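user: can you give me the structure for this one chain? tokens are fine.
assistant: on it. calling the predictor now.
[tool input]
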Amino acid sequence: MSFSLLIDSIDVGKIVQITNVDRGFAPEIEHSAFEYARRNGSRYAGVSRYQVRKITVEYVVSSDVDKKRYALQKVVAKNQELKLIFGDEPDRYWLGRLNGESAFNKVTGKYAKGFWTFLCFYPFALSTTVKQATRKQNRLEFVNEGTAETWPVYEFLAGSALKMIAFSHPNGRVVQYGYESGEAVI
């Protein structure tokens, strides 16, 4: 059985045998720091951000090397963002672009090996399905099962025009749309 990799809904695992997928443990993290003259070390500036994640896929081709090479080029060698769904995580997808770091080494007419490196500028996997919130008493609750920050999408039907609507968090923070004295926003 081969490992599945869907690239823009095309299973390249049926064209090649995928031998290794390296998504890395986590993307690199850039930390900002202040450096001071005549002092050792530096001071953390309170700002960190995730960098681009690199995903490397290694594969082998065991028959029809030339034919499969051209089939792979049609799927992978695009100058656009590709949707990547790996067989071991079918409920998540990554958005990546093919990096210049890729290879296709033809050993014989019946055997080749190679790799692709994809750059994911948003370094987290996204869910393939939309999660629905549940209403509990006077609250909406939903579970974020991923590792990325998630912003909810609110959809509701108002019984009449509303000038203002607000959502509050138990910590006291509030998100408000519109003003009581303004025009209807919904």
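assistant: here you go. The chain has two domains: 5-127, 134-178. The two ends are 53 Å apart (CA to CA).
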